[in-house]
Specification:
Blueprint: E1 3-6, H1 7-11, H2 26-37, H3 43-48, H4 50-57, H5 63-69, E2 73-75, H6 81-92, H7 99-108, H8 122-141
Length: 148
């Protein structure tokens, strides 16, 4: 199993005081939620977390809450083959330089000094989603390179 990210990696590291541990999951949940809504989820995820996925798709739970139901981790068995290839290129990036995190920071830089201060909300998801879509479309058009 490949683990792309885990909320515990963040809150067990240099994490801002005063924020709940759940704040470490928001950026992870935003990416996985986009993948689920873009039909890049694995059959395993859809089978194992079907009720949670249904709630997510109805916007009854937030992206951060969804990833926390999955132990706060983004792992390869949650995504289909194309989703994993995109996660390697965009989320994981090369040499710990994540284009996704760069985009996330750019989108929310006016609202938060720290990546963890971004509220886990559907309105914030709606702000980052077009950037993920643009990156995905460009990645696909370029022949799905290993890294963006």
């Amino acid at each position: 199993m490949v683990k792309y990210d885990d909320a515990s990696w963040h809150y067990d590291g240099e994490f801002p005081e005063g924020l709940p541990r759940s704040a470490a999951a928001t950026h992870i949940g935003m990416f996985l939620t986009w993948c689920v809504l873009a039909d890049l989820a694995s059959e395993e995820l859809l089978d194992d977390a079907g009720e949670d996925v249904a709630q997510l798709m109805q916007r009854e739970i937030t992206p951060g809450a969804f990833i926390l139901l999955l132990d706060g981790a983004l792992v390869d068995d949650q995504l289909d083959e194309e989703g994993n290839a995109f996660a390697v290129a965009y989320y994981a990036g090369e040499d710990d330089d994540s284009p996704y995190v760069d985009d996330y920071v750019d989108v929310f830089d006016e609202d938060a000094e720290e990546i963890y201060e971004v509220a886990d909300s559907w309105s914030n998801f709606d702000r980052i989603a077009p950037h993920i879509r643009e990156r995905f479309d460009g990645w696909r058009a370029a022949g799905s390179p290993s890294y963006l």
